[in-house]
Structures are given as structure tokens and as C-alpha cells.
Design brief:
CheY-like_superfamily; Response regulator transcription factor; 11 strands; OmpR/PhoB-type_DNA-bd; five-stranded parallel β-sheet; Rossmann fold; four-stranded antiparallel β-sheet; phosphoprotein; alpha/beta; 221 residues
């Protein structure tokens, strides 16, 4: 899952970014409100973490601009301001959750995973696709009831497709969400990844819809 972190405090931003990467997120970090608004408007994210007290443009204004522009990715507000009226304003502006500073990193990660699942219509951290079961909490996988070892990239690939059941996902979209702003990701890299996974787990798990993209077989639509 590709996440946009909006935080101007370098220490907090570094700690959150590291924790999210360890939890399997691909993180882009914006350090002021203008950069955040631009990134959220032109890039496709699966989730955002938004501080309110930002330079150049405050967090609520950033969120209003995203929602007015039709950007619907789930957003968790992260703020040192704990007044309940501000929490209400954040939710009514379009936030999906609100966490006050100071906070426990484990809670932040759990809340982010939860709002991503809700956005996809999923309720549990276990994602099943035929013989493949992904545990997005422990970041482990089983295939045919036996543990299998997946690289972080392979795990993110399956999780992304599992969050879009029944919809073919193009190689370009997969590259954007698996590699982000990195130059390493292109459609050829995705094709090579699919080929490797089919060799590892069998050809029937990942279906190709010619001209549309890839989807996992055995998932409820």
C-alpha cells in the first residue's frame, strides 16, 4: 500500500516513516502543506497521514482541497491538538480517523491498516485467496496451509490485488503503488514479478485479463 505522510517535524516524520515502511507501506513524505496538497492531488495513494500544524498551508485546508478535488483516499489526522471540537471538524472535513500526539506507533499502524481495509470493504486482517492466506498484521503468508516466504515486494503485490477483488489492475497501476516515485518500477518489472510468483505458487493464482491487467482468482467480488 502506498502512503502519503504529511509531517513537518523531522524527528516525528523519520520515526513514522520508518515504522510504516517496516509495516509494509510504501511511503512518500511531504514536509509542508503546499507539497502535501500537490502530491495528494497528482499522485494516487492508498492512505494518508496528515498533521494539522503545517507550514505554508494548514492540514485541514489541505484535506478540504483534496476532498473538493475528488481525492477519496482514506486519511488519518495526526495532531498535537487534542480538543474534541477540532477532532469533530477534522472528521467532518473528510478525515477517516484522528490520532492525537503523543501516540504509540503500534496504534498508528493498526489504525492505518484498519482504514485501508474499510475503504476496500474488508473487515479482517486475514486476506484469503484460494489456497493463499495473507496476514497483514503479522505480515506472513501461507499457501495450502503451509508457511511461505514472500519478499516485501511480493507481499505488497498480493495485498494490493487482494484489496481490489474482482477488478483487473493494470501493470502501470501496480508499478505506481508498489514502487511509488522510484525509477525501479515499470510495467516490465511488474511482468517479471508476476512471472516469478507464478513459478513459485502456480500459474492459476494470478489471472491475466488481456488489455486490462491482473487479478487474484478465488477472491469474492
Amino acid at each position: 500500500m502506498r502512503a502519503l505522510l504529511v509531517e513537518d517535524d523531522p524527528d516525528v516524520g523519520e520515526h513514522v516513516s520508518r515504522a510504516l515502511c517496516e509495516a509494509g507501506f510504501l511511503v512518500d513524505w511531504a514536509r509542508d502543506g503546499h507539497e502535501a496538497w500537490f502530491k495528494g492531488d497528482v499522485e494516487n495513494y492508498d492512505v494518508g497521514v496528515l498533521d494539522l500544524g503545517l507550514p505554508l498551508l494548514d492540514g485541514l485546508s489541505v484535506l478540504r482541497r483534496w476532498r473538493s478535488a475528488g481525492r477519496t483516499f482514506p486519511v488519518l489526522i495526526l495532531s498535537a491538538r487534542g480538543d474534541w471540537t477540532e477532532k469533530v471538524e477534522g472528521i467532518e472535513t473528510g478525515a477517516d480517523d484522528y490520532l492525537s500526539k503523543p501516540f504509540e506507533m503500534g496504534e498508528l499502524v493498526a489504525r492505518m491498516r484498519a482504514i485501508v481495509r474499510r475503504a476496500a470493504g474488508l473487515s479482517a486482517p486475514l486476506l484469503s485467496c484460494g489456497s493463499l492466506v495473507l496476514d497483514t498484521h503479522r505480515m506472513t503468508a501461507t499457501f495450502g496451509s503451509r508457511p511461505i516466504r514472500l519478499s516485501p515486494l511480493e507481499f505488497r503485490f498480493f495485498v494490493y490485488l487482494a484489496h481490489h477483488p474482482g477488478r483487473p489492475v493494470s501493470a502501470a497501476e501496480l508499478a505506481e503503488h508498489l514502487y511509488g516515485e522510484s525509477d525501479a518500477g515499470d510495467t516490465n518489472a511488474i511482468e517479471a514479478l508476476v512471472l516469478r510468483l507464478r513459478r513459485k505458487l502456480g500459474a492459476s493464482l494470478i489471472e491475466t485479463r488481456r488489455g486490462f491487467g491482473y487479478l487474484l482468482t478465488g477472491m469474492a467480488e
